[in-house]
């Protein structure tokens, strides 16, 4: 699941996280168990567990608790993806068929609910009220983000709209990954807020890069169709920058008002790739990664701190 | 919402429970807020909050906490109903159109998720790890029950299958309502287990009566089509008793294997009503209500204990 040198020492613990997740599918209906195992083994990068494990180890949290917390957060993430794919009608995720593509909506809704329930149970077993509240709060932020997107109007969002949306969608869960790790550690409480801010910035960088890959990647490597967001009517940062430069661009306007054909979308993707906004967008992701490093200024020096610092650049270089 | 003499002293607190639920819809997208408010005001009997308020007051729990707990449990209940209606394709609930009947599946899934997130947040704010674990555990039991039902084969269930299913669907939430009230109270821990068992028995009585009403009620009073469970391929206790007496009944078999027409189902409902199994089923609900009363044997005498004892009979007589 991870093939970068500076993280190999996490491998054993990441395997334990996977085992912990798998253990939550035992004893249920066989169809549910197999759907669950399929979802849990289909290529997630485990980037949120990596943040939790690194931040928690840096702050001397118990390994057992960190593994439960990591599993809980990765399952919360997976549950929201399952419902999300149903809502979008997405057929591919991480290059694999979604549950939604071969199950009924009923089975998909319930599988998401089940994974969510197991995630909540794992979080509750940590016996840390503050972490549990944060877990519930994060779920509510993610769902509210999805609702705003569903009911949102089709216009070109501002950069602030975009930042809010990616915080709801991604940053909040990275913030949970880092903050909850600090909450369950015995370390001084002064680390809690910077840990959260680190998570937020890393999550922001991660999502910006994900949105760039939607323009620059190919279907095989990204695991979903190129320009998917744009075709779904969700302009991301490259399109927003492009729209600031060319507010009257007719293919952009067609994509926004839903009148675009597939070849309009192809044309827009090409124009965005050639306009220089991709590099500008990546600069912004780099800035977030640097901000994340600054948040760690007061943290004790250690191998984990070093890895957390490298993580931002790894995220940015991952598939580009 | 309640119009029975022995419960009128709860009215102020039940209003506060409603206000607490409503307060959780503020600040979100207007369409979500209005769907949420519609759901929360469409005729729920608030029987779970009644159990929580009575049990908690009997054991001297703080009113503020009991109101949050009641709101949290009623919202958890509502969230599962929203997803349930989507899964069943139900168009009516409590005599009102379901969300599902006029919203897209996407909006329905997300509204359920939102209500669920708010319920989890309220539960987490109680700052009681044991209650939180029980809350998550109960969600997992309910979802697992729905999954078993979705994937279940169409044969006549045994009485044990039926009891397991209604525990998963209803009893577990009543058990949570009573046990969590005991958990957040300052009373001796010896009351926790009997409180849970009280909830379980009352929930069982409640669901059995609900299943009887599906045969004996009319659509206007019950709020959904008569014989709905049978038409959906879910035989409940009256049909199970009937099947034990008449295992070769051809309309029963047709309803079980999915080949029944609407008039077959009408015919079966009539046969069940005339066979005497309804009275036998109600006897069983009465027995559960008596069991519930026995569980309260060691509890201190008070108006609340008195009301908890009467609740079973009220449930049984409610609409018959």
Blueprint (SSEs and pairs):
2 copies of one chain form a homodimer.
Chain A: H1 11-23, H2 30-40, H3 47-58, H4 63-88, E1 92-93, E2 96-97, H5 99-102, H6 105-124, H7 129-151, H8 159-183, H9 192-216, H10 219-222, H11 228-231, H12 237-245, H13 250-257, H14 262-274, H15 277-295, H16 303-317
Antiparallel strand pairs in A: 1-2
Helix pairs in contact in A: 1-4, 3-4, 3-8, 3-16, 4-6, 4-7, 4-8, 7-8, 8-9, 9-15, 9-16, 12-15, 13-14, 15-16
Q: Could you please describe the fold and organization of this structure?
A:
2 copies of one chain form a homodimer. By secondary structure, the first copy, chain A, is mainly α. The first copy, chain A, has a single domain, classed as Farnesyl Diphosphate Synthase. Chain A is built from 16 helices and 2 strands. In chain A, strands 1-2 form a two-stranded antiparallel ribbon. In chain A, strand 1 and strand 2 form a beta hairpin. In chain A, helix 12 packs across helix 15. Chain A is globular. The two termini of chain A are 18 Å apart. Chains A and B meet through helix 4, helix 6 and helix 7 of A and helix 4, helix 6 and helix 7 of B.
């Amino acid at each position: 699941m991870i093939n970068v040198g500076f993280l190999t020492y996490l491998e054993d613990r990441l395997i334990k996280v996977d085992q912990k997740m798998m253990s939550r599918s035992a004893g249920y209906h066989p169809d549910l168990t197999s759907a669950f195992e399929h979802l849990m083994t289909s290529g997630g990068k485990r980037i949120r567990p990596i943040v939790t494990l690194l931040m928690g180890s840096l702050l001397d949290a118990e390994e057992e608790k960190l593994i439960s917390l990591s599993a809980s957060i990765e399952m919360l993430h997976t549950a929201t993806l399952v419902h999300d794919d149903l809502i979008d009608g997405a057929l591919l995720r991480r290059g694999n068929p979604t549950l939604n593509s071969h199950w009924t909506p009923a089975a998909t809704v319930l599988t998401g609910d089940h994974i969510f329930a197991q995630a909540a149970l794992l979080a509750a077993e940590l016996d840390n009220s503050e972490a549990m509240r944060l877990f519930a709060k994060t779920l509510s932020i993610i769902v509210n983000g999805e609702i705003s997107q569903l009911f949102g109007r089709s216009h070109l969002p501002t950069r602030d709209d975009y930042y809010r949306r990616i915080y709801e969608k991604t940053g909040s869960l990275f913030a949970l990954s880092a903050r909850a790790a600090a909450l369950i550690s015995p370390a001084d409480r002064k680390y809690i807020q910077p840990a959260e801010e680190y998570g937020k910035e890393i999550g922001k960088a991660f999502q910006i890069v994900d949105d760039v890959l939607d323009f620059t990647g190919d279907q095989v490597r990204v695991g979903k169709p190129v320009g998917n967001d744009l075709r779904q009517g969700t302009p991301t940062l490259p399109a927003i920058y492009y729209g600031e430069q060319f507010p009257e661009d007719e293919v952009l306007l067609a994509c926004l008002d839903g009148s675009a054909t597939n070849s309009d979308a192809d044309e827009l993707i090409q124009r965005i790739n050639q306009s220089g906004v991709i590099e500008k967008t990546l600069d912004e992701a780099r800035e977030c990664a640097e901000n994340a490093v600054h948040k760690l200024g007061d943290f004790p020096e250690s191998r984990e701190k070093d890895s957390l610092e490298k993580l931002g650049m790894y995220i940015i270089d991952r598939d580009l």
